[in-house]
Amino acid sequence: MHTTVDEIAPDVFRLATFVPDVGPTGMSFNQFLIRDEQPLLFHTGARRLFPLVSEAIGALVPLKSMRWIAFGHLESDECGAMNNLLAAAPQAEVAHGALGCMVSLDDLADRAPVPLADGQVIELGEKRVRHIDTPHVPHGWDARVLYEETTGTLFCGDLFTNLGDVPAVVDDDVLGPASEAEDMFGATCLTPQTAPKIRELAELAPSTLAIMHGSSFRGDGAAALHGLADAYERRLADSA
Ligand SMILES: [Fe+2]
Ligand SMILES: [Fe+2]
Questions:
Q1: What is the C-alpha end-to-end distance of the chain, expressed in Å?
Q2: How far apart are CA 161 and CA 25, in angstroms?
Q3: Mind listing the pLDDT tens digit for each residue in 40-53?
Q4: How high is the pLDDT of residue 102?
Q5: Contact assessment for residue 10 and residue 151, using Cβ atoms and an 8 Å cutoff
Q6: Nearest bound ligand to CA 136?
Q7: Tens of pLDDT, residues 158-215
Q8: What local confidence, expressed as pLDDT, does residue 176 receive?
Q9: Which ligand has its closest atom nearest to the C-alpha of 139?
Q10: Are 77 and 29 in contact (CB under 8 A)?
Q11: Which of 4, 49, 81, 180 has the highest CB neighbour number within 10 Å of its CB?
Q12: 104-137 pLDDT, tens per residue?
């Protein structure tokens, strides 16, 4: 395995490791690094990927300069290497939703995490990231997304998961591949709140969707998010 690095928006980098033995097609596990005065990493990758991911980070910024560690929710691919990073970067802090800190991270993180209120912004230098609580969307009580305001990049985690060894960025259909992945894994917590929360994210009108598994998307993020919300509404209705 190896980790590829692509710049998906100015000073926003996708670090991707394709793991061939996940499901029938394999799947990429992506982290996103925002390079600024205070570098931020969204998703750490699992602990076993830390040698690859830390080397990829080091090609962009000194590993020990990492300032913020963030992720969508508590799962090994999202945050398994959190404590490895805390050890490697002495000034780094984990920034997560207040609920997730209380429920899990106050205990799991080797240094105390920074609890964020819904809508709270962290200034990284030139870039600004807004924390948005999305409980159970796509899954996990502590779930959240991050929105970088200057580039219009929504770090949407497992939303729009797409499978296979795919390009870093696409600008066409993200809904078909996301539907295939949902059929395969059923990863999304399907509730009456799923679609409305995704529509709230559409109001941000992001121009880039930084997707955790598969290709990122550049284009009309609001239309893509509304399309995704429509698809989950249909799934919920079909399950009734
Ligand atoms: Fe997940
Ligand atoms: Fe994930």
A1: 42
A2: 13
A3: 999 999 999 999 99
A4: 98
A5: yes
A6: 1
A7: 999 999 999 999 999 999 999 999 999 999 999 999 999 999 999 999 999 999 999 9
A8: 97
A9: 1
A10: yes
A11: 81
A12: 999 999 999 999 999 999 999 999 999 999 999 9
The ligand whose atoms approach the alpha carbon of 213 most closely is 2
Ligand nearest to the CA of 134: 1
Find out whether 136 and 97 touch, Cβ atoms under 8 Å.
Answer: no
Tokens matching residue 51: 């040698």
- State the alpha helices, DSSP H only, in the chain: 50-58, 76-79, 82-88, 98-100, 106-108, 175-185, 194-202, 221-239
Q: What is the mean pLDDT of the chain?
A: 97
Rounded Cα distance between 192 and 159, Å, is 16
Residue 78 CA to ligand 2 center (angstroms) comes to 6
CA of 57 to the centre of ligand 1 (A): 22
Collapsing DSSP to helix, strand or coil, 43 comes out as coil
Peptide bond into 138 cis (omega under 30): yes
Residue 213 alpha carbon to ligand 2 centre in Å? 6
Q: Give the Å distance between the CA of 6 and the centre of ligand 1.
A: 22
Per-residue CA distances from 65 to 53, 75, 94, 221 (Å) = 15, 24, 14, 31
pLDDT, tens digit, 9 for 90 and up, residues 131-160? 999 999 999 999 999 999 999 999 999 999
User: What dihedral do alpha carbons 59, 61, 65, 69 form, nearest 10°?
Assistant: -90
- Whether 240 shows a pLDDT value over 90: the answer reads no
Q: Is the dihedral of CA 27, 33, 34, 35 positive or negative?
A: negative
User: What gap in Å lies between CA 149 and CA 57, rounded to an integer?
Assistant: 22
Q: Please give the distance, rounded to the nearest whole angstrom, from the Cα atom of residue 126 to the centre of ligand 2.
A: 28
Of the bound ligands, which one is closest to the alpha carbon of residue 73?
Answer: 1
